[in-house]
């Protein structure tokens, strides 16, 4: 029985490797905007090209997934190391309830809100869009200061079952990690 299980997983990984040869999309962030609303520095953005057919299959099989977004704010200083002011992690969690045929989502920046929908398209949109996340009060920034906002996103491996975590090594087509996107601004 143990040999059969080992052969099954080996065959699974070989199939996944061949499927990855045709995968060409790269996850990325778009529509990144910062603004001042109610005296706070806020940021909004969208994540695109993350829901591959393999990730869709994982979700529709009822496996919970988490997208982690990392937002940093640095004060840019000449002739010195930039100063990190804020380091935020935002998690979007989604689980498909197979029996009820509903997607349940929680977003860490909206603690009291649980989104429930029966539309996979709506669930994908809720997982990949962030709007008006408060970074810090704007008056905490120095006048005439130069700043950088850095944003990055990835599929969190921490909450996945162990057999799927190991599949990340072999299958980048349904796991993702974006590059850092940097916005410069002056206050």
Explain what the structure shows.
With 187 residues, the chain is an alpha+beta fold. It is 24% helix and 45% strand. The chain has a 6-stranded antiparallel sheet with strand order 6-5-4-3-8-9, with helices on one face. Strand 3 and strand 4 form a beta hairpin. The radius of gyration is 19 Å and the shape is elongated. It starts with a helix and ends with a strand. About 4% of the residues have low confidence.
Return the average pLDDT rounded to an integer: 84
Note the run of SSEs as H and E. Answer: HEEHEEEEHEEHE
Distance separating the two termini: 65 Å
Q: How much of the polypeptide forms β-strand, as a percent range?
A: over 45%
According to DSSP, the number of beta strands is 9
Largest sheet: 6 strands, antiparallel
- Cα-atom Rg, whole angstroms? 19 Å
> With helices defined by DSSP (H or I, 4 residues minimum), what is the helix count?
4
Specify the overall morphology. Answer: elongated
pLDDT < 50 runs, ≥5 residues = 17-24
SSE class: alpha+beta
Helix content: 10-25%
Write the layout of secondary structure elements.
Blueprint: H1 2-20, E1 28-37, E2 40-48, H2 53-60, E3 65-76, E4 83-97, E5 102-107, E6 110-117, H3 120-128, E7 129-137, E8 146-155, H4 162-170, E9 181-186
Antiparallel strand pairs: 1-2, 2-7, 3-4, 3-8, 4-5, 5-6, 8-9
């Amino acid at each position: 029985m143990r040999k059969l299980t080992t052969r099954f997983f080996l065959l699974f990984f070989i199939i996944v490797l061949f499927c990855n040869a045709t995968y060409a999309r790269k996850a990325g962030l778009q529509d990144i905007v910062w603004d001042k609303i109610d005296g706070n520095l806020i940021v909004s953005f969208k994540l695109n090209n993350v829901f591959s057919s393999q990730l869709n299959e994982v979700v529709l099989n009822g496996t919970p997934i988490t997208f982690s977004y990392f937002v940093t704010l640095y004060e840019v200083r000449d002739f010195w190391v930039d100063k990190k002011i804020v380091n935020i992690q935002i998690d979007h969690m989604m689980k498909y309830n197979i029996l009820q045929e509903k997607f349940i989502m929680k977003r860490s920046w909206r603690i009291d809100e649980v989104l429930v929908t029966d539309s996979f398209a709506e669930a994908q949109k809720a997982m990949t869009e962030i709007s008006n996340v408060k970074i810090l009060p704007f008056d905490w920034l120095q006048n005439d200061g130069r700043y950088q906002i850095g944003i990055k996103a990835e599929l969190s491996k921490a909450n996945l079952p162990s057999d799927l975590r190991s599949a990340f090594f072999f299958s980048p087509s349904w796991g993702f990690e974006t590059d850092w996107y940097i916005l410069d601004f002056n206050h």
